[in-house]
Amino acid sequence: MEKLRIGIIPELNSMPLFYSILENKARYESIFSFTIAKVHQLNQMMQEGKLDISVCSSLNYAFNKEAYFVLPDISISSIGAVKSIYLFSSVPWEQLERTTVQVTKNSLTTIYLLSSLLFGRNVTYTQEKTTEASALLLTANEAITHFYTNPTKYVYDLGEIWYQKYQLPFVYALCLARKDIAEHKKELLCQLHTILLEAKKTRAVYYENIAKQYGKGVFPYKKDCIAYLENLSYDLSKEHQQGFLSFQKILLEQKVLNQVADFTFFNEKTD
Question: Could you tell me if 261 and 61 are in contact, meaning their C-beta atoms sit under 8 angstroms apart?
Fold first, then answer.
């Protein structure tokens, strides 16, 4: 049987979905193969057809809707503060105008979230390290580590700013499956989907182990890591979908997107 090629992000925020699979890799090695890489690398590998399914930046779907199905009921989101997507700034938010912001290359969606929130302020964004930047955008483990080890005068949680402005969840990542493999690997996709839904349902059972194995060196204390995991949302409810569609509409108005990509979900009846 041809294996299902799965992409996994090696960040704390994805571990509640994949911890059980990674801990039991031998059980699945006959049907699944795993690639662990940064999200921007997984986005590219999905586009190149090197993976069948992966957690990807949500905007990877918006830019390439024709290539993917969305796995239902699964996302990496926040409803309010996300506590791992921070803008570290030397000036207050209100003064971030006609300035330079250094951004991470690891998160397509987060970069566009920041640019949408600062739209019209003539901000320049660069992925190159520069001493001219007034602010630094970091995500995931890197942002958490920086938060605890590099005191900064002004720190802004983008999930919190989004929620204060729009009162909607923000969807950072989706689990995407390539349409061109969905039919002949349907059984494996359904099996993975079942595993991930069960992982989402029972994820709290593994928080302490995740904190011990993956939180060391990221959070100073285990309890902080557990609190972070408890705060994240892994649903893709109607409200989550509305949040993602609203974000796309904003980017459409700002001429980042040419159209809004509605949800095309994978299911067992997919042709």
Answer: yes
Do the Cβ atoms of 109 and 174 come closer than 8 Å?
A: no
Say what percent of the chain tops pLDDT 90: 94
Beta strands in the chain (DSSP E): 4-8, 32-36, 53-57, 68-78, 85-89, 100-103, 124-126, 135-139, 154-157, 170-178
Q: Of 264, 262, 244, 263, nearest to 116 (Cα)? A: 244
Task: Identify which of 83, 224, 247 has the alpha carbon closest to the alpha carbon of residue 165.
Answer: 247
Position 269 pLDDT exceeds 80: no
User: What was the pLDDT predicted at 270?
Assistant: 45
Mean pLDDT of the chain: 95
CA pair distance 234, 174, nearest whole angstrom: 10
* Structure token pair of residue 250: 């904003």
pLDDT band at 105 (very low <50, low <70, confident <90, very high): confident
Answer for the pair 50, 15: CB distance below 8 angstroms, yes or no: no
Query: Using CA atoms, how far apart are residues 136 and 96, in angstroms rounded to an integer?
Result: 12
